[in-house]
Design goal:
The chain is mainly β. It is about 0% helix and about 50% strand. The strands form two sheets. Strands 2, 4, 5, 6, 9, 10 and 11 form a seven-stranded mixed sheet that branches.
């Protein structure tokens, strides 16, 4: 069983930065692929970053490319999401998700394990 615990959310003004953390536990092969998703009220869940823990390769959609960066700390079993130049439209609940295999793109249905989320609010 994989457990994912997010932290680091909060309130920030536009242009500011936040770093989210996703602490993972469980068999490593069950969480080889870690992704970050977000969901704003009345909107669907949107993927914002993905990292393959085995290869270190990353993926970002155009909406956050150049502003968000995902990284891993294997010693701490933690994946980070550094978010810079935040915009009001980045306001959402942010979730980390894990699965054994990194499939193309960022599709919520491709991930088996989910954390409870951490709220990010960006004011203008």
């Amino acid at each position: 069983q994989v457990q994912l615990v997010e932290s680091g959310g909060g309130s920030v003004q536009a242009g500011g930065s936040l770093r989210l953390s996703c602490a993972a536990s469980g068999a490593w092969y069950t969480r080889n692929c870690i992704a970050w998703f977000r969901q704003a009220p009345l909107k669907g869940r949107e993927g914002v970053a993905k990292i393959n823990l085995g290869t270190g390769s990353t993926y970002y959609p155009d909406s956050v490319k150049g502003r968000f960066a995902v990284s891993q700390d294997n010693a701490k079993n933690t994946v980070y999401l550094q978010m810079n130049n935040l915009k009001p439209e980045d306001t959402a609940m942010y979730y980390c998700a894990a699965d054994t295999i990194c499939r193309p793109y960022l599709v919520p249905g491709d991930f088996t394990y989910w954390g409870q989320g951490t709220q990010v609010t960006v004011s203008s």
